[in-house]
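Exercise 3.2. Students should predict the tertiary structure of the chain below and write it as structure tokens, then compare their answer with the key that follows.

Predict this chain's 3D structure.
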Amino acid sequence: MPPGVLDSSSGKETRVKGKAIANRPNALAAAGLLMSAAAFPAAAAGTLTLGVDGIYGTTEADISGFDDTGDGHHSGAMLEIDYAEEHWMVEGRLAMTEGDVDYELEEQSVDYGSYGSYGSYGSYGLTSQEFDMSADSTTYAGGVRVMLRDSLAASSFYGVYSGIGLAHVKMEGRIPSPSYEDDTHNRYKDTIRNWYIPAGVIVGGDVAGSPWRWEARAEYRAVIDSDLERDVEGGQGSFDDSPSVYGLQAEATLAYRVDNGGTPIELRATPYVARWSADDTSSERNQYGIRLGVAF
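Answer key:
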């Protein structure tokens, strides 16, 4: 069977497990594109939202404007809510009883979710993150970043960081078929576990004479290992090699510091853009959104 082809001639539910390392197709699925025959197993039509790695960023609770604890370090936590719009475009092929069917999909959708993280900083930083997203999927993600940082001036800093992250995603949908117009055929359920490595740079600082603070961040993410378990009604997906999968994200944060009875709190707004893509394919996922939250 050709890569990325779904055989729907069996008329029964089939469970398929696939393993991806670095550049296999379900690595891209786990990264958040999840639907091209050229890049990963065929998936579903309709609105697919998979808000994981590279979409919501890894904004650690870097509260550089806060008072140090006396040993040159500071720490803090952050809670945010997220709203985003996304656009994805994929193409694929279905193996039907009446012959192969090629299709192209282009969709827009809305994501929303919650996000939290903790960070401790000095000349280096160690951060963790937790995330939950709800739309047409449920995502639980976590990761750890290690940051090397230094001061540019008395009120600004820069840093570079890397680490490792894991996302666990459950989602379901329907694969388009000219043979079935209703939603009761060609449905699937996916469980995805995805390991990725981020690499990024960050700069930030205080606005002199004001309670405002700013940050800017750029990050590259590589999917290194992914496992996809798929239940398909009426068919079976196949797995094969695919081009390299990667993600890019850029974001900017504007924060306002509030002195809450001697305990500083930051009100934060972070607009961002993100992209996941596979080399030499037409599959891509672009997203833009904003996170609103508080750091303390």
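Discussion points: The radius of gyration is 21 Å. The chain has one domain: 5-295.
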